[in-house]
Amino acid sequence: xxxxxxxxxxxxxxxxxxxxxxxxxxxxxxxxxxxxxxxxxxxxxxxxxxxxxxxxxxxxxxxxxxxxxxxxxxxxxxxxxxxxxxxxxxxxxxxxxxxxxxxxxxxxxxxxxxxxxxxxxxxxxxxxxxxxxxxxxxxxxxxxxxxxxxxxxxxxxxxxxxxxxxxxxxxxxxxxxxxxxxxxxxxxxxxxxxxxxxxxxxxxxxxxxxxxxxxxxxxxxxxxxxxxxxxxxxxxxxxxxxxxxxxxxxxxxxxxxxxxxxxxxxxxxxxxxxxxxxxxxxx
Amino acid sequence: xxxxxxxxxxxxxxxxxxxxxxxxxxxxxxxxxxxxxxxxxxxxxxxxxxxxxxxxxxxxxxxxxxxxxxxxxxxxxxxxxxxxxxxxxxxxxxxxxxxxxxxxxxxxxxxxxxxxxxxxxxxxxxxxxxxxxxxxxxxxxxxxxxxxxxxxxxxxxxxxxxxxxxxxxxxxxxxxxxxxxxxxxxxxxxxxxxxxxxxxxxxxxxxxxxxxxxxxxxxxxxxxxxxxxxxxxxxxxxx
Lengths: 283, 239
Ligand SMILES: Nc1ncnc2c1ncn2[C@@H]1O[C@H](COP(=O)(O)OP(=O)(O)OP(=O)(O)O)[C@@H](O)[C@H]1O
Ligand SMILES: [Mg+2]
Known about the structure:
The structure holds two protein chains of two kinds.
Chain A (H helix, E strand, L loop, with lengths): L1 H11 L2 H26 L3 H20 L6 H20 L5 H23 L5 H10 L9 H20 L1 H9 L1 H6 L4 H23 L4 H15 L3 H26 L3 H26 L1
Chain B lengths: L1 E12 L2 E12 L3 E5 L6 H8 L7 E6 L8 E4 L13 H7 L2 H4 L7 H13 L15 H15 L3 E5 L7 H16 L4 E5 L3 H7 L2 E4 L5 E4 H6 L1 H7 L10
The structure holds adenosine-5'-triphosphate (ATP) and magnesium ion (MG).
């Protein structure tokens, strides 16, 4: 045990480990806050589609040899979020099919482009990293950490300021619209923020695993808690806890960060589901 | 004072009309009942009035300074997902959202209003409970409390008593009647319960193959009523 603590405190001396922890906590917090809305609004498929779009955008950034690809990826993902939301609301086009098309298409094109244009010697390693997150946590620069901190503050602030409106629009969009709340505007806001969260989370867990990061804490919290506020608070706590634990385990056991975090999320979900069932039986 | 005016209104989905050429006015303090068979377009009319759906042609205008955020609405079915975690308190309070405008948080007045409406509908013991664990009738009352938070002037109700037991149905009707008489709320209600419609409403809009709009008294004289009630109305004991 003391050996573990020794190793940990040794690692914590390195700035890159601290960066990873900071970013991990922030990303986990942001994604869990909007995860509840995403799950409840049946928007989770949008999250999935967007993460693949973000992968395609990263491939494009790689072609142009951009050293800082975040702004480009962010812009493309936000625009896609707006477009996806539009098609989702349009009952004539099958929303699900459109999203599946875009997301799989982006994945394929992204990989193709990387294959053709990449100058990297370790192509499959690069692809694996963008899909599943880095195998280690060495990849964050100081700029990225700062960008992440600023964006996280904005995301959390938006969530707090629009909390009541997000609730209204999530719970009953028609009622909100009928009684004078500008539901479309808030839907748009939610979609844009989700796009930002996805781009943030890509660094940590890679584009294939983002949905897990967003959805699992919310689903866990919903097993036990029954009001919107308690579910939101609980999923934020669960998400931050799982993320921290996952990062620490991945350092000690040298496992890939993203999948370790998701594995912890799954374990917690199972525990919560178990508790929920027991509590349901007893009441 | 006219609050709502519909002129040559045609409604439908995707440009396909299901009802055409409706003309009617609603005055402040009216109690309008919309009756008609299943599928005749009552819910569609209500959604069009609420602006959830564009009219195919024609015009709906709000008069007398009636604003969108002064309307309360009780939907026929709420597409609330089975597993939505929300307490009764959170839902009723969300009715105040329209009053908030750009203000991010609920004021003390909003909370007071929500509390009063919860009390009015006898929901106080259920305040902390989870919405999805309530019975259908209790859920209906929660949604009515929410609708009351949203309005001081006009309340639209889509089959408010469906699924309620006879006692609660009666309570619901007298409550709505009170809201109309005491709180001076304009009521627009869709109902299949023609007896209740005729004992409480001041005006009737009958839609379907034949369209009728007018006062309750005129409706009784008209042919439209005969179809719907098979002539048994004279026994209902109006007023
Ligand atoms: N979203 C929709 N898209 C296309 N057609 C619709 C839609 N909703 C309803 N309709 C059609 O419009 C017609 C009117 O429906 P509406 O729900 O307004 O009837 P209603 O009078 O409220 O019936 P009920 O008494 O059963 O509530 C029906 O024929 C229905 O099939
Ligand atoms: Mg209907």
